[in-house]
Design goal:
By secondary structure, the chain is an alpha+beta fold. Helices cover 23% and strands 32% of the residues.
Length: 116
């Protein structure tokens, strides 16, 4: 297995996607079998644009992910960064020989109440 991770705090979704994709793809050095994206709620009004922007950079793998008020990822100097309550996008790519990935979709309505 091989993994690569990148994080961006660019305020522009396009710039953030470009930054994390170029860094993670460069680190990985081969086509990923899986992409995991974590996007801050600061980009909530742009969520619909995220997957098409990522697909311009990563065509071959399933892309899974979620949103949150905090996003964690690796900076170019290979130190972790946790970005809270600000624009942030994290991308992790994986090469997983012999693994079959089957993505699925959950909506907020399908999840139990937070008090459950």
């Amino acid at each position: 297995m091989k993994w690569a991770s990148a994080i961006s705090t660019q305020p522009s979704l396009e710039a953030a996607v470009q930054e994390v994709a170029s860094q993670a793809i460069s680190q990985l050095g081969e086509e990923p079998d899986l992409a995991m994206v974590f996007v801050s709620t600061a980009f909530a009004s742009e969520y619909a644009r995220l997957l098409p922007l990522l697909r311009q950079q990563i065509q071959t793998s399933p892309i899974v992910g979620c949103s949150g008020s905090g996003v964690i990822g690796m900076q170019p100097v290979q130190t972790p960064l946790e970005a809270e309550d600000q624009p942030a996008l994290s991308l992790s790519l994986a090469v997983l020989p012999g693994v079959e990935v089957t993505p699925f979709h959950l909506t907020g309505e399908a999840l139990p109440d937070l008090d459950s």
